[in-house]
Amino acid sequence: MSSSTTYSVGRRLSAWSVHAFTGSGTVLGLLALLAVIDGNATACLIWLGIALIVDGVDGTLARRAAVRDVLPDFDGSVLDLVIDYLNYVVVPAIFLYRFGLFPDGFGTVLTAFILVTSLYCFCNVHMKSGDNYFVGFPAIWNVVALYLWVLGWPGFVNALVVVVIGALTFTTVKFLHPFRVREFMAINIAVTVVWMASSLILLLVHPELPVIVLVPWLAATAYYVGVCLWRTLRGPA
Q1: Is 144 in a helix, a strand, or coil?
Q2: Are 201 and 184 contacting, i.e. CB atoms less than 8 angstroms apart?
Q3: Nearest CA to 149 among 20, 35, 6?
Q4: What sign for the dihedral angle of Cα 151, 156, 159, 163?
Q5: Which of 7, 18, 77, 215 could disulfide-link 11, Cβ–Cβ 3.0 to 4.6 Å?
Q6: What is the pLDDT of residues 27-80, one digit of tens each?
Q7: Spatial CB neighbours of 63, under 8 Å, sequence gap ≥ 6
């Protein structure tokens, strides 16, 4: 559609409201960062979780509002990437450093490793496959931070996990996007809801790990891993 097309005030307001919704992620990132400064790990991860939900649905809203056509001079994709780097990379990296999840003496190096490897992900023009899987680790360090906090592994194990996952950034391993991959979408969303609900409960009762909550959480995790492995082994879309 031509960029010269004139849209109604209502259409333009609708498009700007979607960008404002996306932009709210910066405020959520700020609240998460302030929670880290205050030493409140639970609050930080909850704010990041809300930001994850916002990021998961804003794309659908943007497409419905046709924001690229209505506001061609404002790049929502760049807006999304800037906010994602804050909430998916910077705040989680500082979280891991601040709460002592790295081995003594390796905190700065591992934090820098997260920040630098993630740059490749955000600048990679082939970040998505034709069927909307992420190609390589999609720098979702907020999710990694959640797992390492909840599971409470020793620092050296956490360091190994971070190095291995960070290295996957430069591979062609496929990672599921539950809201964009059309195949099994209904199941993907249902599993994601279970995962989010169980994650919230585990955060609220941390450091306890009640089996009734841990089992569905790990089952959802196993589902994600299984789908990612299946899609990777299947080859090009």
Answers
A1: helix
A2: no
A3: 35
A4: negative
A5: 7
A6: 999 999 999 999 999 999 999 999 999 998 998 899 999 999 999 999 999 999
A7: none
> Phi and psi of 175, rounded to 5°?
-120, 135
Q: Hunting for tokens 């190095």 — which residue is that?
A: 163
N residues, the chain: 237
Residue 236 exposed, middle or buried by CB count within 10 Å (0-12, 13-18, 19+): exposed
Write the pLDDT tens digit of every residue in 118-132. Answer: 999 999 999 999 999
Residues 6+ apart with CB under 8 A from 199: 49, 146, 150, 217
- Phi-psi group of 173: left, alpha or beta (phi > 0 → left; psi -120 to 50 → alpha; rest → beta): beta
**What's the CA gap between 108 and 114, in Å, rounded?**
10
Q: Give the confidence band of 230 by pLDDT, cuts at 50, 70, 90.
A: very high
Q: How far apart are CA 136 and CA 125, in angstroms?
A: 12
Residue with tokens 């490897």: 117
Chain centroid, CA 40 distance in Å: 20
Task: State the average pLDDT over residues 151-176.
Answer: 98
Separation CA 146–CA 44 (nearest Å)? 10
